[in-house]
Structures are given as C-alpha cells and as structure tokens.
Amino acid sequence: MAEKKHRLVSVPLLSVICSMLYVYCSTVFIFLDEWLGIGTASGILNAIIFSWLAFMTFFSFFVAVLTDPGSVPPFFAPAVEDARHDSGDAVYCEKCCSYKPPRTHHCRVCKRCVLKMDHHCIWINTCVGYKNYKSFVIFALHASLGSCYAMVIFVSNLMQKEHDFGIVSAKLFYALSGLVILSASLSSTSLFCWHVYLLAHNMTTIEYRGAQKDRWLANRSGQKYRHPFDLGFFQNLILIFGPNMLKWFCPTAVGHLGDGTQFPISND
C-alpha cells in the first residue's frame, strides 16, 4: 500500500491529473455552457457523454498507476533448453541475480525486472508491463476521445459564440485552454495509435526497437518480417483484453491473464 501511495507522488503524474481536471472543468462549465447552455437538452447530453469519457480516462489512469506491472515469480527457473537460448527465451538478469522469463526486461528506474515490459512511463510513475498494459491502452483510448471531444466543443464555442477578447485575461485563458486541449489531443491520439499498431502485432515498444535489424534484413531479402509472438490481429486483441468482448473496455477485468512467464508463438 505504501508503494502504491508513493507512485502518486510525482511531478509528471500530478501534472497529468491537473491537466485532465483543467480540461474537464473548463470544457463542461465554460465552453459547453457558453456554446449550448449546460441546462439545455443538447447541453446535458454533451455533458453526459463528455463526463463518461472523462470518468473512464481518470479510472483507467489510476488503475494503470496503482496496478503492479508484473514481477518475476519467486524462484522462477526456466527449462534447461530455454536457458541456453538468447532470443525470446528466458535469460539471466545480472542485476537481479535471477532468471527472467521471455519478454521480461530489467527497468533501471524501478530497479527490478518487469514482465512483458513495454516501457517505463514517467507520466504514471511506473512501468507499463504485463499486468497494467490493458488499463494503459484503455486510458490512452479514452484520453484521445475525450480530448478530441473537448477540442470540438472548444472550437464550436469560439466559432458560434461572440466573445469579448478585449480583456487580456480572457485572451490568456482561451489561449491557454486551446494550447492545453490541443496538446492533450495530439499526444493522447498519437500514443493510442502507436499502441494500436503494437497491439496489432502483439509487440512491445522494446521489442519493436529490438526487431528493427531483423525487419531491415527481411525487407532487404524480399521477405515480410513477422514478429514471433504475432498470432493475428484478433487473437492478439484477445491476449490483451480477454476472450469476453463485453469486458474489453473494463480496465480491471484481467482475470484472463496468466503468470506472465509464457507466451504462445506463431507457427508461421
């Protein structure tokens, strides 16, 4: 519990929380109210939709922050034949003085090995790994939808409502709001699109970087590179989100996850 509370004490993480609160409050109580009126039917409908996106963004964000990304099980030991391989199989971590399963990497920030590590994210103050990857992707999805929705409301308010920009404070407020919303839209959308690509190939960010040489060699020889863990788009989605599609967008529905030490490999 103490470790989870410690994760919340981070300047980048707190800046994300403050930015999300700023975007939500300014969008609903100022831009939407000025544009449609918060008490009208259309205003209420837009407020409900945007509030749901904001709730899912906050919820999945905190789930990703507070969920342990995945630690190597105690006394983990690979099969003898696996320990001899150096590509995709278990290897020995000199820093942890223990074997690590396939797709596991040592994080120099967290100072431990993380199962199926994607990257260390300063914005959630922990690693994105096997156990919290689903919630991280759901966060990126709703953050991109919510910020783009906020941008539509912001621009619509500017175009369809007359404003008195003679006041310097009003200019600064709208300029700051536009900058924050635009930055949130671009960053969250690009983040989500990147992880959609990784999901489609069942690949982590670390594995993508490591496979650049193999990809170049395959293209040079006229062949198409395929990641060894790529089982096909739909199967890749099931591995991350689970077999029950009704639970795909629930960040806490991770009962389908195993211990994170073994992963199916493509037969192609």
From TrEMBL:
Top EC class, one word: transferase
Domain Palmitoyltransferase DHHC: 89-208
Reactions performed catalytically: L-cysteinyl-[protein] + hexadecanoyl-CoA = S-hexadecanoyl-L-cysteinyl-[protein] + CoA
GO molecular function: protein-cysteine S-palmitoyltransferase activity
A Pfam short name: DHHC
Keywords: Acyltransferase, Membrane, Transferase, Transmembrane, Transmembrane helix
Localization: Membrane
GO cellular component: membrane
Membrane topology type: Multi-pass membrane protein
Chain segments annotated as transmembrane: 12-32, 44-66, 136-160, 172-200
EC number(s) reported in the record: 2.3.1.225
Primary localization class, coarse: membrane
Description of its domains: The DHHC domain is required for palmitoyltransferase activity.
Family: Belongs to the DHHC palmitoyltransferase family.
Name of this protein: S-acyltransferase
Phylogenetic placement of the source organism: Eukaryota, Viridiplantae, Streptophyta, Embryophyta, Tracheophyta
Gene name of the record: LOC120271911
